[in-house]
Amino acid sequence: MEKTTYQTFSSCHQPLQLHISYNNVALTSSERTKYVGVTLDRKLIWKLYIDDNKQRDEKRMILLKSLEGVRWGCVPTTLHATYRIFIKPVMTYCNAPLITVSEGSINRLEQLQNNALLFITSTIKTPSIDAVLSYTNEISMQYEIIK
Q1: Alpha-carbon distance 111 to 40, whole Å?
Q2: What distances in angstroms separate CA 140 from CA 28, 60, 95, one per listed residue?
Q3: DSSP state, 99?
Q4: How far apart are CA 7 and CA 31, in angstroms?
Q5: Are 88 and 64 in contact (CB under 8 A)?
Q6: Of all helices (H) and strands (E), which one includes residue 54?
Q7: d(CA 143, CA 141)
Q8: 98 with 106: CB under 8 angstroms?
Q9: Is the pTM of this model over 0.85?
Q10: Per-residue pLDDT tens digits for 93-143
Q11: CA dist., res. 1 & res. 65, Å (int)
Q12: 81 to 61, 70, 128, 133: CA distances (angstroms)
């Protein structure tokens, strides 16, 4: 991936091809750009950003699982503090543009949040995630994005 490229944003099927140069060097077009940890795609549907975000969160979930341990384990308050310090900031980083994302894409992030909270509370899958959110004093990702 070249460091100096240009990217156009459009809902058209075909990307716009422009002839842009910088210091007499022609710049190439890119389909996606990563800027300050946020992956921007050509149509601004945020799928790549959500995929990257989910992948980073899943790696950090390993920390919770290792803290819980088999022979010893942390109390739920320690696990919750770890979630709030190491995982939630990654989930909520630069989430303001996600207000335009489809509900299905937000559900992917909510599933990850729900899995973390279920793990923290040592709860087996429950039909009422609202009870777990209330117990842990958290809000759903959909409301987190809106606020």
Answers
A1: 23
A2: 40, 19, 13
A3: G
A4: 7
A5: no
A6: helix 47-68
A7: 5
A8: yes
A9: no
A10: 888 788 888 888 888 888 888 888 888 887 766 667 888 888 888 888 887
A11: 35
A12: 13, 20, 22, 15
